Amino acid sequence: MSKFKTLSLTVGAFVAGALITLQLPAFAEKDARAGLPIEDLRTFAEVYSAIKQGYVEPVDDKKMIANAISGLLSNLDPHSAYLDADSFKDLQVGTQGEFGGLGIEVGMEDGLVKVVSPIEDTPAYRAGVKAGDLIFKLDDTPVKGLSLSDAVKKMRGKPKTAIRLSILRKGESKPLEITLVREVIKVQSVKSKIVEPGYAWVRITQFQEATVPDLAKHLSNVYKEGDLKGLVLDLRNDPGGLLHGAIGVSAAFLPPDTKVVSTDGRTPDAKQEFLARPRDYLRGTREDPLRNLPVGVKKVPMVVLVNGGSASASEIVAGALQDHKRAAIVGTQTFGKGSVQSVLPLPNNTAIKLTTARYYTPEGRSIQAKGITPDIVVEESPNGSSAARVREADLERHLEDKREAAKDESKPAPAKPAGKQDKEESDEMPARLEYASQNDYQFQQALNILKGLQIMQGK
């Protein structure tokens, strides 16, 4: 099995796949027993000096130090990383839902750029780039030998400029060449529609700064056509995003002050509980966007759709609604990204993204490297699929759960299969699938389940 390293990079953004808190944690309490390893630092200084004096070409001091910092972080876990000035700017811009690029979340496998997921309504998505594609050449530049950051920088560029991707795709006998035109990517965080009288579909594509107020607007709009009998919350292929967004989305459907998620780490700031209350999901002192939600939102029968691309913030929402029996979780096993990254700004407009805590569902279940098990398993199609998806547990140096998470009583009940399944699990969506359409098998099954829930609740 090839090793897959991911930096949770989106081309043009540094936010996909990470549960991020854009705050500077307090690390005032230092471990008094931890002193500086003087001998090891001397060894580092000797290596630094040897490179400085004897390497075949001159190496800039700033570059050497940045590389050293990057190495320190990248060897911790798949989600800790050094952000240079460009990457830090991309992170800040990306959480606002707008950035420049092609619209693909990428990682690296065997020296090639691997597509984790194309983002909806972007050049890559429209051109048919698929999850699992391996990019081996960018224009005329081979990817082998490039770092993931360097490859991402080459894919960035001014809007309306073109780049040619040479791709290896499973099942294709020849390499594919796809030319994409860069554009400013504007990710629409929330989408919704009435799919039939009394039934609504709400999709969250990514958890951003505006996700909670956008969700409130969409819920109000679908209720303008009358009370709902059922609601599908679609979190498939949602790679996550901001922690407060996940808390706010959960709060929209849960009673006030209900526990949503807890975090546990080494510092006091990392040991917290977050509830369905404004102070835990608002940024600043602005008005609570959930204050005037339609009354029916709290009680409408719900199905939450998830798959292997549902990660991080998506898993917080699914776990909270599952633990509180507020919704039926339907689909396939989620990604298993159960850690929190804090962004610590550094001089010269750089920063580090450091894993500081693990998060747990209201009942204390760890999601790290496990994911959320659906209440009802529904594959992509009636016959399942042969494609498999990389998950957190497949990533090199992924974190394990430090708590005694093997408690049998904390494990969810075995999922009940719905429809035929292949032996090899899959949840990869077909290219350009129209969500909530007649061809969306998982959604159609979710609707059928919802109608059953509505009948049961009526009785």
Automatic annotation (TrEMBL):
The keyword ATP-binding does not apply. Residues 1-28 form the signal peptide. CDD domains: cpPDZ_CPP-like, Peptidase_S41_CPP. Residues 401-411 have a biased composition (Basic and acidic residues). Pfam families: CtpB_N-like (PF22694), PDZ_2 (PF13180), Peptidase_S41 (PF03572). The keyword Hydrolase applies. Residues 88-156 form the PDZ domain. Residues 377-396, 401-437 are annotated as: Disordered. Belongs to the peptidase S41A family. This is S41 family peptidase.
